[in-house]
Records
---
Amino acid sequence: MIPLAVPNLNGNEADYLQECITSTFVSTVGPFVGKFEDAIAALSGTQTAAVLCSGTTAIHLALEGLGIGEGDLVMVPALTFIASANAIRHARADVWLVDVSRDDWIFDAAAARAAIEAQTDPHPEGRLHRESGKILRALMPVMIMGAVPDFPELVALARDFNLKIVVDAAAAIGTMAGTDTPLGQTGVDAVCYSFNGNKTITSGGGGAVAAADNALIARIKHLSSTGRVGPNYDHDVVAYNFRMTNIQAAVGFAQLERLDSFLQSKQRIRDAYAALADGYDVLSPFPEPQNGRNGHWFSGFWYTGTADGIEIAFQNHMKEAGVDLRPFWKPLHLQKPYADALCEPMPVTDDVWRRVFPLPCSTHLTEAELETVKTAAQAFWNRHKEAS
Ligand SMILES: *Cc1c(COP(=O)(O)O)cnc(C)c1O
């Protein structure tokens, strides 16, 4: 079976891991933690970054570090992986679900603006949501598939309503805004990455926050390491053990050395699937918003036709051809934990999510494997074309 996305570990990963073992620095202290942190900051255009044990904890601590918590709301698109919302709840805030726009699948800023205007009043810390009595504090755009949002539009929206922006860039390492502006210099408050095994670069598991505000990064580090003050067992806040280990950082650092070649592979795969989709009226590549350089974490196509049940038929066909194909993320408003969340109308999310087909996109996917995927997909869609 050709997998969807598996790690490419053929660089210095094994050597750096051996260094961890030989030096005995296997835990949260060790040279790779600082090196990885510095590299993430440099890539993000910030002075500092905090590396953590997952992308989920990165989002959680970015929110908590900004003082967002109990009684607060964070606006997040429904078309995302459930971890975006879980992190908001872990910070003890609540989610306010909004749709994505059709041309970027990231965040419908116009719908968000209309909802905020209609349902909230000014408040010193953000916007008071009249019906729930909660305070909207932040927007959380999700850089789905590694795509770039319209940052100037989001920053203007946040400024108009006195809100923070915490970016779920879990899948967007290497993505650049505008003409090569690093994500940390886009005017947002925090950029959160994941280094889970299926992401463009992995540290086995892990995450990071980059921010222009060094004091925010310092607070996040404090929260991630039990809130300890001084060399003894003195702690000033109920905090967490969310640090990254030297072992994870060693893998992540080795991966980051090859980021450019990984991004080239992702682009090659994107181009191949876009060319494939071009051959069929009913298929479109994933949106490629022209707001910068998209990282193309995942590529594939989506079905724009009207036939019922075709998703399942295509999934089964690809599995039989030896290609891993799974349904895309089920949106948050359809998930049990968020069924009762504050929720705006979802015309785009509801229309799109079942029709999205992410295809195999590991950075070391071979030309032969790519050919297998293309041939199998073409066999299905040619048959569909003839039948209709
Ligand atoms: C992977 C991912 C996360 C969560 O990251 P973990 O490291 O798995 O905790 C959050 N949001 C999005 C959009 C993701 O793709």
Note: The two ends are 30 Å apart (CA to CA).
---
Amino acid sequence: MSKANNPLLDPARRSAETQLVHGGTHRSEFNETSEALFLTSGYSYPTSDHAERLFKGEIPGAHNYSRFANPTVDIFQERMALLEGAEAARGFATGMAAVTDAVMSQVRAGDHIVASRALFGGCRFVVEDFMPRFGVSSTLVDGRDPANFAAAMQPNTKVVFIETPTNPTLELVDIKAVADIAHAHGAVLIVDNVFATALWQKPLALGADLVTYSATKHIDGQGRVLGGIVLGSKKLIEGDLHTFLRQTGASLSPFNAWVLLKGLETLPLRVRQMTDSAGKIADALASHAKVDRVIYPHHASHPQYDLAKVQMAEGSTLVSLEVKGGQEAAFKLADSLAVILISNNLGDAKSIITHPRTTTHQRLTEEARLEVGVTPGLLRLSVGLEASDDLIADLLYGLDQI
Ligand SMILES: *Cc1c(COP(=O)(O)O)cnc(C)c1O
């Protein structure tokens, strides 16, 4: 009787749900069942010689400072890497730290970035406003047509950055087509995969080089902590990206990594429930008299429905809708809701409605907003874990008040 030959000892043989409960676990001498929280900044060494060899990198897996390595953060990174099918990962303090480090670690002054223009606010700021201050120029394109990326590539383009589905209009970018364009020009493709989640879309398998997440969203999913992560090949992650993290220090706190690990255990259950409800909400509102259009990637009315079916296993936990009557109508709807909260987070257990024009996209000019589909009547709904019937009833009541 021995478990030595049990095939399930190999993490690669386990399904995602199992990996998200057990993956990457390293137990301490006490053999605790729950992941240990190593709330420590540093580590002591038995001898000076040991310290010297450790700093030379001669002791693999050893820890010397929690800015760049901590056992609890390690478990989070390994578990996420198993889910994503990535060779390596690094945790960050926030999603924006993850995106900024992913981009900055790949460029030098004189380089160029191509990005889709429909991006999360902070991501667009980094690419459009922040990088040019350091001599890295950028071109933003309409991401719906891969030909626009091809046309924007320059000899010095080192990074292509996309988000799909996009915030807040859930437009799609063809990851495989854009990966081929990036690689033909010697650039790396970075995909911000927050809106699809790691369960419904696998950018690395489609050709992306780096994938980023705001772990604040579905991974925590309960509104408690901020966090981020970047995943990819050992070469990219353990090279410039690790050095950038180590030397600039936007590190993930071990406490937050521990909370995120607890979040990963229930991620498939939560994302499945939220996605099912989102689909039901899209169906319930699609032909409502006061709704101009419902936007949901796996709804047949989505302009890129065919691509959504190929690229995404399911249609996301977000639904956007454009109400008739512009901003006044949108405010009336949001202000009459009893269950759904007015806020700007997403991927949370609590359903959240956002009016992008006056909040997340306020910084942009009206012209730039309309370019990415942020009209006065647009609302973005992040579907939570409440009963879908209650969410639909709440929205129908709100629509009645317009
Ligand atoms: C929230 C979010 C970010 C930023 O993450 P933070 O954890 O808030 O820093 C980046 N990209 C997308 C798509 C997001 O939704």
Note: Residues 94-96, 99, 120, 122-123, 163, 167, 192, 194-195, 214, 216-217, 226, 228, 346 surround pyridoxal-5'-phosphate (CB under 6 Å).
